[in-house]
Amino acid sequence: MTRVPHPTAHQPAAAEQIRAGDVLVLDDGTIGEVTVITPCTVRLPAGGYGDGVALWWAQRGGSQSGVMVRRNSDVLQRAAHPARPGHANGPRREQ
Q1: Per-residue pLDDT reduced to its tens digit, 44-84
Q2: How many domains would you assign to the chain?
Q3: Residue 45, domain extent
């Protein structure tokens, strides 16, 4: 199982800012790449409903995968990784 060796190797991001291809550090330290994002309605802890996202992920270097549902404002940990050109977290090529 791939784990993040240092807790400083990530940056916080609101769930609504996560994009397919982003790499997240899950609560147990697993590194998962987001594969699909779907807007959805979530049940709020204090009652009622709000806007959120369903994030499908696949473990990097492993066989785990899953889906997590979060409010748009929930803060997730985006793994610091070399960004790909044109990727939401990386430099864009000038055309």
Answers
A1: 989 999 999 999 999 988 899 999 999 999 999 998 755 44
A2: 1
A3: 10-79
pLDDT digits (tens, 9 = 90+) for 76-92: 999 875 544 444 444 33
pTM of the entire predicted model: 0.73
Q: How many CB atoms lie within 10 A of CB 17?
A: 15
Q: Is residue 94 part of a domain?
A: no
Contacts of 51 (CB under 8 A, 6+ apart): 16, 39, 41, 42, 71, 72
The DSSP code sequence of the chain is: --B-S-TTSEEEEEGGG--TT-EEE-TTSBEEEEEEEEEEEEE-TTSSEEEEEEEEEEETTSS-EEEEEEETT-EEEEEP-PPPTTSTTSPPPP-
Tokens standing for 8?
């400083």
In this structure, what CATH number is given to the domain that contains residue 60? 2.30.30.30
